[in-house]
Structures are given as structure tokens and as C-alpha cells.
Hints:
The chain has about 350 residues and is of the alpha/beta class. The chain has ten helices and 16 strands. A hairpin with a 4-residue loop joins strand 2 (about 15-20) and strand 3. The two termini are about 35 Å apart.
Amino acid sequence: MARVAVLFTGGTISMRHDAAAGGNVPSLTGADLLATVPGLTDIATVEPIDLGLTPASHFQFSKLFEISRAVQAALAEPDIAGAVVVQGTDAIEETAFFFDLLHPGPKPVVVTGAMRSASQPGYEGPRNLTDAVRLAASPAAEAGDLGVVVVLAGSIDAADDVSKTHASAFDTFRSLNRGSLGTVDAGGVTLRQRRGPRRHVTADRAAERVFLVTATVATDGTPIEALHGAGADGLVVAATGAGNTDAFLLVAAESAIADGIPVALVTRCPAGAAGTGYAFPGGGATWARAGAMLAGHLTGPKARIALALGLGAGLHRDALAALLADPAPVHDPDRFWDG
């Protein structure tokens, strides 16, 4: 039977309602959570690793490196088939991508959690944990070179594409650009497409002062000027549409770029990518000419993670741009699905 390392870090899946506090608070250890899913022993031999009870909204880069190192140490054991990270869902689209950038593969890493606490009706933590272990133990996961994926509500989603699309819905996690990689349930694992090329960086630190600026109507250069003056390490600008902003926002970014601050450009839209189709002042083409790096189909939060890790790794502009850009597709005649 396959062995799977399960790393418990906290989150809603580990919470119960506390009347005195007036809401959900961390309560359940890894052992407590495993006790809610006795059937896991029929799927895999679980190796539990407790890493605390931290709400995802409290994560700092130092904690994410601790989790990533623990994952890699577990996967280095020859008889460990894969790993599961159990955490809060608030920041799962960022943390999963963080782990993915640092994960060399090919063993699968599955990140999961729950949208309901253990005190709420419809608590789905046991099902999500079961699905995650089932996927991590599956030979199909390693064969599919999945890297790091998120599994909730039975959907398997790539770390670089998945987004939390609703504050409380069970099926909140969606891959809005390429679609789900497949599904997992009591019947097994079904993969509809391979993950494809992944971004990767080797780093043991992240730049702490990388900031995300979202362009809105009447947003001038003030936010970038303030962050530039405060010593930002890097900036990600989430532009409207296909990469367009007010001209004054670009002027402020040009000053930051001239001082050596790397600037990445993404769309603020839930899906799609910033591009160079518009050449009016503040249009995507003018951002690219000014030296901003296009971050492919990454969302603003994900681009911030990549830029922070890239800077932490000591990458310079060309290498940063390559890390942010979408990996070149590889023709694969054995792809599960071309939809």
C-alpha cells in the first residue's frame, strides 16, 4: 500500500465554533482530523506531520518555506508516494503556487482544506482529505507529472491556474484559463489533461517587500510613488482589461523601473493575460516598452509570489521575466485530453 505524508497546518478544516470567541477558531490537531476519516487506512498508509494551527490569512513567507522544506523532506523518502498539505483556503491559490515553484517533482503534492468548519452543517473536511490522499497515492498522479495541485469538492486544479472564485461556496476553486485537470472521488482518479510545463525556481528566501497595485478608474501614480519611496523590492500591477492603466500610473512605474525596481504587469480580470495590443499612453504596449515584465496568465497574487521568490533567488531581469512568463507548451501526443 502506498505511503502518503500528510502535513497539517491548520485552517478552517481544523476549526470549531467557540461561543466565547464568537466564531470559528483553530481546534483540531492532525490526529483529530485523521480520526474523522477512519477509511483512509484503506487508501494509503498515512504519515502525519503536524506543523501547527495557523489560519491561512496569517501565513508569512517564513512559514511557507518551513512547510515546503517539510514536504520535500518527506518526498525524499523513497517509499513516500506523495504528500498532502492541509491548510486554510483563504490563501490556498497563493501558497499552492509557492510550493509549486519550489517543487522539482515528479511526486505529487496535493493541497486541500475545507470551506466549512467542523461545527458547521455540511462540513466537507473528511471528504476533501480523503480525496487528497487518494490522489497523492495514485500512480496516475506521478505519471501525469501534476506537480502541486489543489483538491476540493472533487476537482483537481493546477497550482498556477486555480483561483478562489467565491467567498464561501463549496466549489469555489476553479481553473479559469485551462480548466480542471480532472476529478477524484470514491471511484478513483480521472485525469482529463496533463499539467504541462511548470515554472520552477530554487530559493531559500523571498523578497518581503513585493507589492500588488490594482488599477481602477481614477487610480493615478500615487500608490506606486508611495511604495517606491518606501523601498519596495518589486511591484506587480494588475491592469484593467488586456493590460491598460491611466498614463500617470505608468509614469510612476517608469520612475521605479529606472531605479532598478522590477515591475510585472498582469490583468486584474479573473482570467486571461495582459498583452501589448494597446499603444495609447498607459496601454499594455507602452508598459512593455517601459520595461514592465508580462506575467502570462498568472493572477496578481500569483505573480507577486513568483516575483518575490525570483528576487529571493537573486534572479536578474531576464531570468525574472522568464520565470513570470507562461512556460512554452510542449507537444505531447499522450496528453489525456485536448479540450
